[in-house]
Design brief:
By secondary structure, the protein is of the alpha+beta class. It has helices spanning 4-10, 88-99, 160-168, 189-196, 212-217, 224-234, 242-249, 263-267, 274-288, and strands at 18-21, 29-32, 46-47, 56-63, 73-80, 118-121, 124-127, 141-144, 151-153, 156-157. α3 (160-168) runs parallel beside α6 and α6 (224-234) packs across α9 (274-288).
């Protein structure tokens, strides 16, 4: 099951949807976003390309300022791509710097390292700095904030809960024995390889915000990013808190709300596999019971 069908339905809003049972089938429900979360199709603004533009491409961008008391809208920006860099982030910065200074977004490294510019582009969570416009086909580029997160403004989401969940897994080395006085805590090459890929997570939140289980249980389910971080320390040969770490995760919601949908692995811009890490944690918990 891919992440495309859900993202625009819930993009940018953590407010609970109204739920009621449809007539005729008690097992079916209809979900409705709150009125102030629904896009106003009449409010969007249009910024045409400058005269003489040779290769025009349209960027449809989600705009929402909670403090303004208005519903979200989609603004359309036409850019001359011969005067723009190749990445989606280049287009966004051109819009902000030359067309509409009110557009808000996060960005920092421009190299796919910091994770700041994570957003939903053409229905997929990704990094704007590593996603080339030419990779997105020839139609409009549609940009939303990360799905099902509170919106601070426009493409900026509130990651407070996300970071708190990361901190909850205690992502640091825990030991009881003192370190050797004359050297570091050493690992074999094989031991280091076990933590090498999980350590590459940049906390962009693409994986967690692509996960339906996280959308509906984000207050209790830790989510793929936090669980990948937990796995990284669980398998670290230098760490001495394996039992405590597993105890903290043995909970119907914190860990087991993962249903192996695999959206997290598909969405990760660093080609990591959070779903595999979560499965390994579940296996460790099962093995210690026997």
């Amino acid at each position: 099951m891919g992440s495309r069908p859900y993202n625009r339905l819930v993009a940018g809003h953590a407010a609970a949807a109204a739920i009621h049972t449809t007539t005729g089938d008690p097992d079916m429900v209809e979900l409705f976003l709150p009125r102030n979360a629904r896009i106003d199709p009449r409010a969007g603004k249009h910024y045409p390309a400058p005269a003489g533009a040779r290769r025009v491409r349209t960027f449809r961008i989600y705009r929402f300022d909670p403090s303004a008391g208005e519903r979200p809208r989609i603004d359309r920006y036409e850019l001359d791509m011969t005067q723009c860099g190749p990445m989606v982030l280049d287009a966004l910065l051109k819009i902000k710097n030359e067309v509409d200074a009110t557009l808000s977004l996060r960005r920092s490294c421009r190299e796919g390292i910091c994770g700041s510019c994570a957003m939903n582009i053409n229905g997929l969570n990704t990094l704007a700095c590593t996603r080339a416009c030419d990779e997105l086909g020839g139609g409009d580029v549609v940009i939303y904030p990360l799905p099902h997160m509170p919106v601070v403004k426009d493409l900026v989401t509130d990651l407070t809960t996300f970071y708190a969940q990361y901190a909850a897994v205690k992502p640091w080395l825990q030991t009881r024995t003192p370190a050797p006085p004359d050297r570091e805590r050493l690992q074999s090459k094989h031991e280091q390889q076990r933590i090498d890929r999980p350590s590459a997570c940049i906390l962009c939140a693409c994986c967690s915000t692509a996960c339906p289980s996280y959308w509906w249980n984000s207050e209790r389910y830790l989510g793929p990013a936090a669980l990948l971080a937990a796995y990284r320390w669980i398998v670290d040969s230098r760490d001495e808190a394996l039992g405590e770490r597993l105890d903290a995760l043995e909970d119907p919601f914190r860990l087991y709300r993962c249903h192996t949908i695999m959206n997290c692995t598909e969405a990760c811009p660093k080609d990591l596999n959070p779903a595999k890490a979560i499965g390994a944690i579940k296996q460790l918990l099962a093995e210690r019971q026997h």
